[in-house]
Design goal:
- The chain is α/β, with parallel strands linked by helices and 216 residues long.
- It has one domain: P-loop containing nucleotide triphosphate hydrolases (Rossmann fold, 3-Layer(aba) Sandwich).
- Helices cover 50% and strands 14% of the residues.
- It has a five-stranded parallel beta sheet. Strands 3-4-5 form a three-stranded antiparallel beta sheet, with helices on one face.
- Strand 3 and strand 4 form a beta hairpin.
- It binds cytidine-5'-diphosphate.
Length: 216
């Protein structure tokens, strides 16, 4: 089977950045599964709907046809939405629609298609537990809620969003709570997960630890 490294963890744990660098280093493909949930949220918001509307969310997920540009740009019906899908409100809606089993099923089909030679690094919430349970390396990346809120705050400021730290902290806790508490594919470490706390580590050090675990 094509090898997969899964990197799961809560919001703003640094999993996206780490996953991209590990993929680059190994020459593997990269899957940001959260982008798919964010794209469904974007479609709903554009249609004036809300993540709680299950029927609308399922329709949006089943008709999702994500396209990616040469530099990893995310396109929705030909429009570059790479920046817009990063908004905090979209992340929040994504976590609301991610509780619907039929939405997850539709997105899992797209995720399985990303498993191509020579290998894949996949980040998300359930990559190691549900989507790629046979992955030879399953990383669970965490950090304290405060450290993650500060990281997300800086990221959003850099992207030009106007945000408040308290609001970020509040939204992040709400999202963590929903992602860990849902009945289907809750955020949790796989039984055989490799735990990494990114709080005291630089990105480079975190990447090195994942690569070392992979080479073992
Ligand atoms: O970047 P951040 O960690 O804040 O979020 P994301 O990875 O882009 O995911 C956005 C939301 O999609 C999460 O809060 C989850 O509710 C959902 N998601 C999921 O349920 N399963 C995944 N594999 C990835 C994301």
């Amino acid at each position: 089977a094509v090898p997969v490294i899964t990197i799961d963890g809560p919001t703003a744990s640094g999993k996206g950045t780490v996953a991209v660098l590990v993929a680059k280093k190994l020459g593997f493909h990269y899957l940001d599964s959260g982008v798919l949930y964010r794209l469904v949220a974007m479609k709903l918001v554009q249609a004036g709907e809300d993540g709680a509307n299950e029927a609308a969310a399922v329709r949006a997920a089943e008709s999702l046809d994500p396209q990616f540009g040469p530099e990893g740009q995310v396109l929705l019906e030909g429009v570059d939405v790479s920046a817009d899908i990063r908004a905090d409100g979209i992340g929040l809606q994504a976590s609301r629609l991610a509780v619907h089993p039929a939405v997850r099923q539709a997105l899992n089909v797209i995720q399985h298609r990303a498993r191509r030679a020579p290998g894949l690094v996949a980040d998300g919430r359930d990559m190691g537990t549900v989507v790629f349970p046979d992955a030879p390396l399953k990383v669970f990346l965490t950090a304290s809620v405060q450290a993650r809120a500060e990281r997300r705050y800086k990221q959003l400021l850099e992207k030009g969003f106007s945000v408040k730290l308290e609001k970020i902290l509040h939204d992040l806790q709400e999202r963590d709570h929903r992602d860990a508490g849902r009945a289907i594919a809750p955020l949790k470490p796989a039984a055989d997960a490799f735990w990494l706390d990114s709080a005291g580590l630089t990105i480079g050090e975190t990447v090195e630890k994942v690569l070392a675990a992979w080479q073992q």
